[in-house]
Amino acid sequence: MKRLIKVLASLPLVCTAATSFTVNASCLDAERLTGVNTAGAEFNSKNLPGTIFKDYVYPTQKEINYIADQGANVIRLPFRWERIQLQPSGPLNKDELKRIRSTVAHAKSRDVCVILDVHNYAKYGNDTLEEKPALQDAFVDLWLRLAREFPDPNDTIFGLMNEPTHLPIPAWATLAKRTLAELRKADAKNVVFIGGGHWSGLHDWFTSRGGQSNANAFADVRDPLNRTVLEAHQYADEWYAGSGKECHEAEHFNRIFQRTADWARENKQTFFIGEFGVPQNENCLKTLDHMLSLMTDADVWKGWTYWATGAWWGNYPLALNTNAATPSPQWKILKRYFFENNPPNPPEIIE
User: Fold this and answer.
1) H helix and E strand count, the chain
2) Which helix (H) or strand (E) holds 231?
3) For residues 144 and 187, is the Cβ–Cβ distance under 8 A?
4) Residue 3 lies inside a defined structural domain of this protein
5) Is the separation of the CB atoms in 115 and 76 below 8 Å?
């Protein structure tokens, strides 16, 4: 009998042959977003705004091409608030805006979504958003300006704030929800990622800090467009910090991921793991494989971005190179779980 491919209508797939297909990597349409962080534009935070190519750097087209070639459909682009907006509530820096636009444009040419990640820990320079509440108004202003510059929801996702540890969880939750409301009021249609408070740790989701846990603070997040996702981070080392050379055993993470997945389903939320990573030893690579296997249910896990690629990492043990001749061993594992290679509902082949 002639072989047919039955494709579920809800999946963003285009059939090209009986046993092959391509994936629409739009920020909006992809069932899952799986990729890597492209670190560099947030580097040297003690020298702000700093000098491009001396203090910080953006990913090159060659690096983005390599990432896309591995099967990733998203990159998370960390950058500093102080560089894109030289004064709080001031105009956006045209030079920095041009660099971000260039990154987004090339990523788009490779069908790669870009998460715009304000990598600031709830600070601006030396001032925290807790100590200077006026900066909270400036933060909303920043995102309204960015939304005007990046209005296409197919190209960019708004990652509001990386690890907002310098603002208590209740205050951060209030500000994040306010920012989301203002973006929707301004007719911004992009997907919004709200990072959990403190260090955004998935393992820490139920720990009360400042009188509230992330589980309490973000259970009621509601978006009229249903395009808001909660971002968490989860490193594998003893302190979950991304700095250790050894990792917890793989099964250590079963309860952490299951408990938060149950919470997400109960509260109608979705998670994105914005940062996770491991060194290159055998035990850590096994843990990496297992952690990725725990994030395959698309109803809870929108996706993930590994930390991190970037040309300036030196000997950082978690770093991924973009060298086709001698690829970092983490790539082999990541590639098996990239959405393009492992969609949650592949086409059904009927004989």
Assistant:
1) 9, 14
2) strand 228-233
3) no
4) no
5) yes
DSSP sequence for 305-339: EEEEE-TT-TT-TTPBP--SSS--THHHHHHHHST
Q: Is residue 191 part of a domain?
A: yes
Whole-prediction pTM: 0.91
Asked if residue 175 lies in contact with residue 136, where contact means CB atoms within 8 angstroms, the answer is: yes
Residues in the chain: 351
- Which token pair is 161? 């704030």
List, for residues 79-115, the tens digit of each pLDDT value.
Answer: 999 999 999 999 999 999 999 999 999 999 999 999 9
For residue 63, give the amino acid letter. E
- What pLDDT digit, counting tens, does each position of 299-309 carry? 999 999 999 99
The answer to whether the beta carbons of residues 75 and 38 sit under 8 Å apart is: yes
What is the C-alpha separation between 284 and 333, in angstroms, rounded? 11
- What distances in angstroms separate CA 165 from CA 144, 160, 275, one per listed residue? 22, 13, 15
Which CB contacts under 8 angstroms, 24+ apart, belong to 17-22? Answer: 18/349, 19/349, 21/346, 21/347, 22/340
Catalytic residue annotation:
163, 275
What is the tally of structural domains in the chain? 1
Whole-angstrom distance, CA of residue 127 vs CA of residue 98: 27
Q: Which two tokens stand for residue 188?
A: 């911004």
- Number of other CB atoms surrounding residue 128 within 10 Å: 18
CA gyration radius for the chain?
A: 20
Q: Token match 């900066």: residue? A: 135
Average pLDDT of span 165-181? 98
Residue 46: inside a domain = yes
- Quote the tokens at residue 54: 């001396």
Q: Is residue 186 part of a domain?
A: yes
pLDDT digit string, tens, across residues 36-85: 999 999 999 999 999 999 999 999 999 999 999 999 999 999 999 999 99
- Reduced 3-state DSSP string for 120-175: CCCEECCEECCCCCHHHHHHHHHHHHHHHHCCCCCCEEEECCCCCCCCCHHHHHHH
Query: What's the pLDDT tens digit per position in 250-264?
Result: 999 999 999 999 999
Which domain does 31 fall in, by range? Answer: 25-350
